[in-house]
Amino acid sequence: MSDERDGIFAVMWDCHGLEAVQAVPNPADITFALLRGAEPPTLPALMHWQLRARYNSHRHYEIYIITATPGIGEDEIRSMFEADPQTAADTIRRIGQKYYSDRQGPGRIAIT
User: Fold this and answer.
1) Which of 5, 11, 36, 76 is most exposed by smallest CB count within 10 Å?
2) Residue whose C-alpha is closest to residue 43's, from 56, 31, 59, 60
3) What is the pTM of this model?
4) What is d(CA 10, CA 44) in angstroms, rounded to the nearest whole number?
5) Mean pLDDT by 10-residue block, N- to C-terminus, for the chain (112 residues)?
6) Which residues neighbour 17 within 8 Å (Cβ) at sequence distance 6 or greater?
7) Of the candidates 14, 12, 74, the residue with the CA atom closest to the CA atom of residue 48
8) How many degrees, rounded to 5, is the angle at CA 42 between CA 85 and CA 20?
9) Would you say 15 and 59 are in contact if contact means Cβ atoms under 8 Å apart?
10) Are the C-beta atoms of 57 and 102 separated by less than 8 Å?
C-alpha cells in the first residue's frame, strides 16, 4: 500500500551527529501484513530512543518526526547530515515535529 503517509521518518541526533533515521510505516501496511500472516513493517523504537536520550543527557539528544517529499528516503536524510549537519538539524527543527529535545541553549553554557 502507498498513500500520503509514505515519507514519514523518525530522526534522532545528538551533539556528535546523526544517530538514527527510520521510516514510520503506514498503519494500514501493518494491519494488512498481519492479516496476510506476513512480517509487519518495523516501527521506530521511540520509547527506547527517548530513554537513551534521557540517560545520556550530556549528549543533548533531539528526536523529531518529519514528513519528506516523495522520493526522499532514509539514505537521503543520512546524506544530508553527512554533507552539512548544522543545516540538516536546523531544517528538521523548522519543518519537523519535536518528539524530544534536550538541546543546549546559549543560556545554559557556563563557559564559552
Assistant:
1) 36
2) 31
3) 0.83
4) 7
5) 66 95 92 93 94 94 95 94 95 96 72 50
6) 81, 85
7) 12
8) 15
9) yes
10) yes
